[in-house]
Amino acid sequence: MAKKKIKKEAAERFIEKYMEKYEGVVTPAMKKMLSNFLMNVIRDGVADLERLNKYMICNDFYATLPKYEYSRTATYIELSINYNYSVSQIKNIVYAWRPKFHAINNIDETV
Prior knowledge:
The chain is 60% helix and 0% strand. With 111 residues, it is mostly helical. The longest helix is centred in the N-terminal third of the chain and has 16 residues, at 28-43.
């Protein structure tokens, strides 16, 4: 797949989803500052847009599953329409990238 820009709406949804982790921990002013920081990191190209896009596809996959009574096929079709990828590309992204978005697979906590 060729690298392409992430839609602004997808970047904003990523920031909203990510900020849920800090709900009740930070003040509204700090939340706004962190949101602006994350958007600037995305705009400046520090964050890998391809990885961010795949994160949102995986996130949307799990959010959309209940809508179609846990039918993976219908979920893949909707995501392929939303993200302008083929169904097989969406399926490959979900299977290949799903495990990469868990902390246990990204951080080695051994001393």
